[in-house]
Amino acid sequence: MEQLFVTSSGQLRQRWMQAFADARAALRVADAVSLAPRDPRILWLDASGLDRTACLERVREAVATGSRVVLMSAVPGEAEAFEALNQGAVGYCHVEAAPSQLREIALVVEHGGLWMLPELVQRLMGLSLRVVPTPAPAHPQLDTLTSRELMVAGRVARGASNQEIAEALDISERTVKAHLSSIFDKLGVRDRVQLALAMNNIPTYTSVN
């Protein structure tokens, strides 16, 4: 999938190039789309220097092209995240996100999932449930999860990042990612937000059986 960055400078940042060797940049959404008119693409929108109105207009314009859109904010916040997702964005992150995180975001988005900063997952989930009630998936198959997977899922439901989960459970981040992949498959969810919804109001586990 093409990785196209829309930024006021029209230039790729070093960390973006480190994340995606074939990434390309453009000044405008239309210019980015013209670089890959037929291919599936992710449009990464650099919101640095844009006010709220201009930022949301750019998200709407990008979504209208049929691209998968990720908004990159200089000062991430739950209000902006909620607005961007309401406009059709499928990802929301810091503009200075590390290359490894950018690749993780791309993987989730390419597979039809939704990605946002882990620390916003819990707060945004609570906000969405109040504003636009969305029930958690019916009867998630928690009995199919191992004890360790239940522990990981429970911490994701509380908005913990992979690093925080790894430190709390004394395992590597690679192992956390492996557990999450297995959890997603077993519960039929695509991303951390759906997992948090599935785990909402379900007791979490604090020890390994």
From TrEMBL:
GO terms for molecular function: DNA binding. Keywords: DNA-binding, Transcription, Transcription regulation. SMART domains: HTH_LUXR. The keyword Transcription applies. The keyword Transcription applies. It comes from the Bacteria. GO terms for biological process: regulation of DNA-templated transcription. PANTHER family: TRANSCRIPTIONAL REGULATORY PROTEIN NARL-RELATED, TWO-COMPONENT RESPONSE REGULATOR. This is Response regulator transcription factor.
